[in-house]
Amino acid sequence: MNTNADLLKELRIDRKAPSPPSRHGLWIGLAVAVVVVGGAAAWFAFGRDDRIEVRTASVVAIGNGGGSASVLDATGYVVARRQATVSAKITGKVRQVLIEEGQRVEAGQIMATLDPVDADAQRTLAQSQVGAARSQTDSVRAQLTEAEANASRLGRLVGQKLISRQQYDQAVAQRDSLRAQLATAQRNAQVAADSLRIAENGVDNTIVRAPFAGVVIAKAAQPGEIVSPLSAGGGFTRTGIGTIVDMDSLEVEVDVGESFIGRVQPQMPVEAVLNAYPDWKIPAEVIAIIPTADRGKATVKVRIALKQRDARIVPDMGVRVSFLEAAKPAAPAAKPGVLAPTAAIVARDGGDVAFVVEDGIARRRALKLGRTLGDDREVLEGLAGGDTVVLDPPEALADGAAVRVADPASEDSAADAE
What we know:
Blueprint lengths: L3 H7 L12 H25 L4 E7 L1 E2 L8 E11 L2 E4 L5 E6 L6 E2 L4 E5 L2 H43 L5 H40 L2 E3 L4 E6 L6 E2 L14 E4 L4 E8 L11 E6 L6 E14 L4 E8 L11 E7 L13 E4 L4 E3 L2 E8 L2 E6 L1 E6 L2 E6 L6 E4 L11 E3 L2 H10 L1
Parallel strand pairs: 1-24
Antiparallel strand pairs: 1-23, 2-17, 3-12, 3-16, 4-11, 5-7, 5-10, 6-9, 7-8, 9-11, 12-15, 13-14, 13-16, 14-15, 17-22, 18-19, 19-20, 21-22
Helix pairs in contact: 3-4
Protein name: Efflux RND transporter periplasmic adaptor subunit
Pfam family, one: BSH_RND
Family: Belongs to the membrane fusion protein (MFP) (TC 8.A.1) family.
């Protein structure tokens, strides 16, 4: 039998009991479920990659075989056939130097000037001597005119017996003497004029000009230094202003061993490669074989002309040359083809085909095959060098199908796992 205390406990509210479910929470759960199911359906419908995964390889072009073979290789240097260290014709002090290394000069261009004080003084003296000689000539010519008139007058008088014969003879002698003096004065004036021209050449010799067009490769003098065309014997006198090279005269000189010189012929085609530019092949040909041998090195010097002019070719560069046989034209039937992996060639519809990948699409190509070379096959028609072909094309692969190139790294990982 329950007591009053037990009845009161039954009337209390239990705060720990769970509340009844709410309709609002039920709708939220239903919405989440719909979103999850819809996303999965959308991924299945649109996110699935239906492209066929394939492996690919590149097609390699085959050379046409029409080139020339090398019969001999040699090394040498680029040299200039026209190179000059320009100097003044006279000894003098440099006043100006108008060149710098790397500068191009034309024929007759002024490279430097010397101090012209002495040359100017010599020219001034020669001009004075010319003036004096001409004055003397004019004086003698005036005297001669008077003597000729006097001799003519006395000749008429002696015919009339008005003067003695002696007076007439003296007048003739005076005239002839003045004629000789005039000839001498004229020759002296000519000598003075020649001396003036020499003095003017001396002034012109103070100007150093380029003998031909070229590029300055060395500057040897500075203003204030003494230059001379002769060696100073260890003093402070320079022997040149600068060195210029005619870049159009560059050629190659190589030393060929005596044992191999028989393989080289004049006008023989040559391929030259500069050590500074190993990927640049310069066409050339043999100019001449120098008809003398070096006893110490047992070599013969060969001159080679470069058929290509370029600013990158400079004197004293090292060069390797290959002497080539005359090029032989390829036979008409020997049309160059390509090499494709044998795994890329399959038989479809009674013919040999391959699939070329272009922008993610497989394109079917009909092939004309040639020789079998190891794991490759020569393809005469249907493929070009550089094409990307599908290896082991699956039966489901058709022309125009979308493909995806397999990642080489993932394939290697799978192979290692196996």
